[in-house]
Amino acid sequence: IRCPVKECDEEILHGKYSKHLSSHEMKDRELYSYINKGGRPRQHLLTLTRRAQKHRLRELKRQVKAFAEKEEGGDIKAVCMTLFLLALRAKNEHKQADELEAIMKGRGSGLHPAVCLAIRVNTFLSCSQYHKMYRTVKAVTGRQIFQPLHALRTAEKALLPGYHPFEWKPPLKNVSTNTEVGIIDGLSGLPLSIDDYPVDTIAKRFRYDAALVCALKDMEEEILEGLKAKNLDDYLNGPFTVVVKESCDGMGDVSEKHGSGPAVPEKAVRFSFTVMNISIAHGNESKRIFEELKPNSELCCKPLCLMLA
Q1: Are 191 and 117 found together in one domain?
Q2: pTM score > 0.85 for this model?
Q3: Where found (predicted)?
């Protein structure tokens, strides 16, 4: 309410009006007291129906539309969203503002499946442990921050050989152009001796060139960063020299699984390799654009064959 006393004109909340009035020294104070004329009290905007909200805001909406057309190319949504963000930040509600901003930019407030996969691998969570965490977080927060397991499996496929189509130029001799991978007997081709444990295996074997292409595709960002660091950002023709270490494995000593020792019953086996470094011929010298800092970590192992014995 605006105070009607001469030379005051202050705006006061309804509940504090009588206290404010008592601070003025004057005759006939009751003449100035606020009279509620009855009728329905004005409801809060958010409690109204959508139709009533539109009705109450129609004048403001018209002004916002006029401003948007004049200043923002008619983008009313952007103007309203920005007003909302500013209102939230003015009240220090930054968390809500950040989430809203993420949704506006199409990121959503959840984590990307590839990020969830990285979290699961780096924290050594099994699928069931991850699923339990996913369900708990969803139930407690009411939001899907972590992605479900099927989304992680889809993201994982991009890390497996055979996912990226490629061609060698010039084409490799005696190598099929088909990048499909198959299920095979993992011990096929290994010479068996009398003392070997009789074992059945099922394995998913990848072609070496398909596995190498997948590894390099996976490392695309590091390679481009390395080129940029050596001021070679336009130099993408090669030739690149890729040094690979074989039989790197996070599942124990691989030498036992290459036929020199007995095949272990009920054992998951992974034949893999690690890209140690990548260099590029530039003029008369060779410039190293990538080097694996933790070559013994299972996190940089690239699969060649995944086998259950």
Answers
A1: no
A2: no
A3: Nucleus
